[in-house]
Amino acid sequence: MNASEAFVDIHCHLLPGIDDGSQSWEQSLEMAAMAQGDGTAIIVTTPHQLGNFGHNDGQLIRAKTLELQQQLVQHEILLRVVPGADVRIEEGMVEKLCDGRVLTLADRGRHVLLELPHELFFPMDDVLNRLRRVNMVGILSHPERNQGLLKQPRIVESLVNHGCLMQVTCGSLMGIFGPASQQMAEWMLQQGLVHFLATDAHSPTSRRPLMRRAFERTEQLVGEQIAVDLCCRNPAAVVEGQDIKILRYKPKPRSFLSNLFKRDKAA
Predict the structure, then answer these.
(1) In the chain, N or C terminus with fewer CB closer than 10 Å?
(2) How many CB atoms are closer than 10 A to CB 126?
(3) Percent of the chain at pLDDT above 90?
(4) What is the C-alpha separation between 236 and 232, in angstroms, rounded?
(5) Backbone angles phi, psi at 59, to 5 degrees
(6) Residue whose C-alpha is closest to residue 60's, from 49, 52, 71
(7) Which strands form 111-115's sheet, in the order they lie side by side?
(8) Could you give the C-alpha distances from 119 to 45, 145, 151, 192, 249, in angstroms and in order?
(9) Tens digits of per-residue pLDDT, 133-191?
(10) Which residues, in sequence order, are CB contacts of 120 under 8 Å at separation 6+?
(11) What are the sequence ranges of the domains in the chain?
């Protein structure tokens, strides 16, 4: 890993008191210091929007992110924060993205972090097509934790073929969300179906904003250059509003594949 390339986290609930993430400025600063110490240089603040968090307006998130950046400077924490959101897919979402009420990642008007309900999967072709028509790209957050996709993992490949990018949670690779999500995350890596790793951090004590261990595990599974792409280069491109260059690298056989095929046949 080049010393000039730092981690960039595109999914982190770092803003205090507006969702189920950080609950205070003290927690936010502790999380920020933790992330910096782990090698992260940039975090996209991604509070929930829409669904149960319809009250989180884009202007509120922008203002809170600016205030957090000022606090980081005052406390000499060398971390850049930019606004974004973890967006629940619902009717009217695209219109709200276009007028700024709902935020794209880094507020660049390009990439949208999309959240499905954890307990089910529903077809996404229509929303991906509507995003494409306004020159936006969907990034599906934590597909390896979605119960519907765990039952039918091959759907992930069809989504990628339809232009949807995939963000896997660092903790999934470390087994924090259980063996099924860990196996799914490893299989996705092996198949070249992951474009970003991110923390989806919620506090300084559990689901913390740490990327290094997942980076090292990714190195073991698919090599250093791909690990750098997923933790540094691809998320940095999102922060700049640039297109992501996708390389579908050669899969390596894993024991999970046999379980995958059995699961698909049983579905």
Answers:
(1) C
(2) 10
(3) 89
(4) 6
(5) -65, -35
(6) 49
(7) 48-49, 86-88, 111-115, 137-141, 165-169, 196-198
(8) 24, 9, 11, 25, 30
(9) 999 999 999 999 999 999 999 999 999 999 999 999 999 999 999 999 999 999 999 99
(10) 146, 147, 148
(11) 7-266
- Asked if residues 141 and 167 have their Cβ atoms less than 8 Å apart, the reply is yes
One of 1.10.357.10, 2.60.40.2970, 3.20.20.140, 3.40.50.300 is the CATH number of 7-266, namely: 3.20.20.140
Note the pTM of the prediction, 2 decimals. 0.92
Q: Answer for the pair 198, 12: CB distance below 8 angstroms, yes or no.
A: yes
Closest of 189, 206, 166, 209 to residue 41, by C-alpha: 209
| Mean pLDDT calculated for residue range 19-30 | 98
Task: Kindly tell me if the per-residue pLDDT of 219 is higher than 50.
Answer: yes
**Integer angstrom CA distances of residue 172 from 141, 213, 238:** 12, 11, 22
